[in-house]
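[step 3/7] fold_predict: job queued, chain A
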Amino acid sequence: MRRAFPLLFIVLAAPLFAVSCAELKQSRAILPVREYEKMIVGRLDAEYVGTDNCVSRCHRHDKLTDDFRRSVHGEQLRPEDGLPLVNCESCHGPGSLAIAKIGDDVEKNDLSKVKCDTTTFLDIMNLPPQAQSLICLKCHSTVSTPILTHWNASSHALNDVSCFDCHKLHQGPQQKVSREQMSELCFGCHPEIKAENNLFSHHPLREKKMACVDCHEVHGSVQEKLLKGSTVKETCTRCHMEKQGPFVFEHGDVTENCANCHAPHGSVNNNLLNAAMPFLCLQCHAGHSADNKQLFVNRCTDCHSQIHGTNSTAPAFNNNGTLRQ
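[step 4/7] structure written:
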């Protein structure tokens, strides 16, 4: 009799559990995104009023507003109502409290230099770098994939670099650094690369014919040094296609890594070489000697012109090491 009651309870309660599980599986929105943004700002009593209401009380932000409307963010409109997908409050948070004490007389506000209460906004510049990036990632984590797929594990994110360190949204409608300015931006954190680029032999960054992003995926990569491409050679042969191959006779041990011989950012030697010839080649190859047993110390490329690989089946040298005539 003692065992009958628990069994009867389970039988009678089973439909109730089934209903509860079915209810749990229902798809429901927890909270609108705007409610979460209010929580981030820390002002649950503020409301969203729109960019036009924020900037219509004075002319202080006219240029910022105009630049933003002509930017890639401001040009995105919702098709159903024509309202912008991104506005000032998307980053700064709800703005009703900021303009609550400002009158509607624009001229009077300009004369008295009335300012909006920016303390009610999200204090973006004093947030940790990771939190600053989250403001951007709440939209760009979906619309910018696969570019940002590796951002959280990238060397930039792990070294406290935020989106705002490179992207300046209030310096004009172009909200990302131009190719002409990119090298100087990167040199701000990588001064050793700037020094290498000032050497005699260098890639044409100083001449503005090339940018850092031609080789590096700044938002994250599965390769070392944030390189684009599956290997170092694949990155280099995006521009140096004649070195790509495949060749019948490959240059052994350097088929995947051009940096074995070349310094990518700058060198005191011709062609970005790590060392001058023949000393670069002698690190791996024994030198040739003539009949008088003297070592050849001229440039190896005077004879071996196709050092990256060749399809020629005729060797340039005889078995005894002398140059074939």
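[step 5/7] annotate
Residues 4-24 form the longest helix (21 residues).
The CA atoms of residues 273 and 315 lie 25 Å apart.
exit 0
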